UniProtKB/TrEMBL annotation:
Belongs to the UPF0145 family. It comes from Rugosimonospora africana. Signal peptide: none annotated. It comes from the Bacteria. This is Heavy metal-binding domain-containing protein.
């Protein structure tokens, strides 16, 4: 199942740029944000870079108030942060699909709140589209190019170990951490003591983000998730409202019909 770029609002400039990157076009050159070392290892793994692909979404993040004294997820904000990232990722995949790519490596997923308003943010996904040299398809079970935020070195190592990337999976939770009462603050003055309300809030929020990331991996029929990053970001919401964001690359063993060339010389290169 290919991603339909016309339904995703890809601009005409992007379509023109991708047309110039088509592998069968005379004078074709590829673009890539891979380092030289990463480029060599991706090539050694049996993949050819086709071009830099990106997706973006400038999103208005809504408003939701949490109760002053209650730990709770702000589901309106969680949905906004998830949907905006998903739009950016899907548009990046649509560009890779237009190039006939099998996947995208070295993906970066960034969020930047803009100066024209604290509630407006740009979500950007960018990576290098690649195609397998052996002509076999490495797309995931949904028929989409795989996505991976692994470095070129880690991508090479993953394949050599007999695993294939399926896609980047993520989980989001925007959470309001309850304020402490004045009496609670006074009772803890001068003491070393755990703050159980805060502990529980941060624990619950991280668990929600992790569980949602795992659910995405299950939908891809993955065996596991590698390179997981679990970040906490306050953005512009203040000290008691924060986002927990979990992201990683879902993987599973390489299918029998995919053979990986295993070179005798193993390179050890730092990014």
């Amino acid at each position: 199942m290919s991603v339909d770029p016309s339904q995703l609002g890809l601009p005409q400039d992007a379509m023109n740029r991708l047309a110039e990157l088509q592998p069968d076009k005379k004078g074709h050159i590829f673009t890539s944000d891979l380092t030289v070392n990463e480029f060599l290892l991706v090539k050694q793994a049996g993949f050819t870079p086709l071009g830099l692909v990106l997706g973006t979404s400038v999103y208005h993040v809504g408003f939701q108030v949490g109760r002053w004294s209650k730990n709770q997820e702000l589901d309106v904000l969680s949905q906004a942060m998830y949907h905006a990232r998903e739009l950016a990722m899907t548009r990046m995949q649509a560009e890779a699909d237009l190039l006939g790519a099998d996947g995208i490596v070295g993906v970066r997923l960034e969020v930047e709140f803009k100066e024209w308003g604290s509630d407006a943010a740009e979500f950007l996904a960018v990576g290098t589209a690649v195609k397998a040299d052996d002509g076999q398809s490495w797309r995931n079970d949904h028929g989409q190019p795989f996505t991976s935020d692994l470095s070129g070195q880690d991508f090479w190592t993953l394949l050599q170990a007999g695993y294939a990337p399926l896609g980047m999976v993520m989980g989001v939770c925007v959470y309001h951490v309850a304020h402490r009462t004045f009496g609670n603050i006074l009772s803890n003055l001068g003491q070393n003591t755990e703050l159980p309300q805060f502990t529980q809030a941060l624990y619950d929020a991280r668990e929600l983000a992790m569980a949602r990331m795992q659910k995405e991996a299950e939908a891809l029929s993955a065996e596991g998730i590698v390179g997981v990053q679990l970040d906490q970001r306050n953005h512009s919401w203040g000290s008691h409202t924060t986002e927990f964001f979990a992201i990683g690359t879902a993987v599973r063993p390489i299918r029998p019909d995919h053979e990986i060339a295993r070179p005798q010389l193993v390179l050890s290169l730092d990014r």
